[in-house]
Amino acid sequence: MSPDAGEVTVLGAGIVGICTALALTERGVKVTLIDRDEPGQATSFGNAGIISPWSVVPQSMPGIWQKVPGWLLDPLGPVTVRPSYLPRLAPWGLRFLWQGREQKVRQISSAMDLLNRDCITLFRRHLTGTGHEDLIRDSYYVHAYRDPDAARLDTLDAELRQAIGADLERIGAEGLRSLEPALSPEFRAAILIKGQARALSPGRVGKVLAEKLQRMGGEIRRATVQAILPLEGGGWSVGTDQGEMTAPRLVLAMGVWSTELLRPLGIRIPLEAERGYHVCFTRPGITLNHSVMDADMKFVASTMEDGLRVAGTAEFAGLDAPVNEKRLKGLVELAKRLSPDLNSTEYTTWSGQRPSLPDSLPCIGEIEGFPGLIAAFGHSHYGLMMAPKTGELVADIATGRKANTDLSPFRALRFG
């Protein structure tokens, strides 16, 4: 460790915080990683496991405003809003829809490319030497359609992917049966996104990388962070349920809870808690060879170490809303439609909060007016795949390395 490398405290031990701590440690920084939960076992645990350099399509796209009402009215649809929460969500929702203009979408897509293009390489580098390199497996992303006319390669999302080098292929019913025989024959075409990977256990990836961090000299503390305050003369105070700590520099990587800590500092960021759900069928009786998205219902299924995971749906109900059992039951029903041979009798369930900003981009970088406070939160649906590059960028910022790229799309205060 170089004598002037300094110290950094990372708040939040999800996959973004873990990758950031690893990147800092590699640069000779003394790192303390703080979280109330075990590393990588909260929101980072529950995702669909997709690791894609070609994930450059934001959530808000042209014409989405026409689809949202139908989604909200469908009990099994991909989006639900608790009626009592709608007035609070409305300003965020309008900002979200405004981001769906084509010109804006292209700008956002370019920024997403920066964070995702090296995700497979960086994850494999982090896993090298752990003995668990096999947790990342090469894969296609199969977008399966019931209506073959809807499986097209002339759409904006296909164009965005192909523009950065993605290898896409359209296949018909016969090709799809050959590739994924467990799928329902209702699916009659698919778009294959090649050159991807998937995590066989996102939670175990987090655990393995946290253990690597400790072997490299990083410290992990279990504590609930309650407040952060700037100190006179520089540095930060971190109030926790285990007492007060001080740090010369802080990285805020606490997902949806990040803005709760920023609000007392007068910082307002339009981040919404978007609850996601998954169901894992522990004895599914079928295997999917790749990650498969039901393109009509917008959920993803993937075979993992512990079974067949079906993940998706977005629920806006506030940070403290109870789990919506109807959403979990809905995922079970959707999974049965995906594969008629699925054994759906034995399963576990999970829910967690995604930190979602209107433009599908996270906040990355030192927050203006608050020296030594670096944002690394708000990764929405893309936290797993964006985590390694986010860590590299934050480590460069914290150690004073000049970035050769424009990070303005990720400014924490970009929404005014």
From TrEMBL:
One of the Pfam families matching this protein, by short name = DAO
In what residue span(s) does the FAD dependent oxidoreductase domain sit? 8-396
Designated name of the protein: FAD-dependent oxidoreductase
Keyword annotations: Oxidoreductase
